[in-house]
Amino acid sequence: MPTVTVVSAAGDPPKLVEVPEGTTLFEAGGKVQAGIDTACVGKGTCGLCRVKIIAGADKLNPFTDEERKHLGNVYHITKVRLSCRCKVGGDVTIQVVRKKS
Asked: What is the CATH number of the domain that holds 56?
């Protein structure tokens, strides 16, 4: 089973969780209480569940239309995706990103 590692910008110890392939990063983050923001609870409509892909981007499904709507076309610069739209296909390392108010 793939492992999702959640690293903290604050320097807290990383949180690891094994999940079946096809699990979203949002679901994986919920299992380790990663603190991923949401208003729509994983439906892809709010754009709050942002995570930065640190490693394993090639183990995720392609960028989705919902992500393009909320994040634009700057993934190649920011490495930020919506956790509810990212399905795991292998080991991935992420960092939770807070939406700027």
From this structure: 3.10.20.30
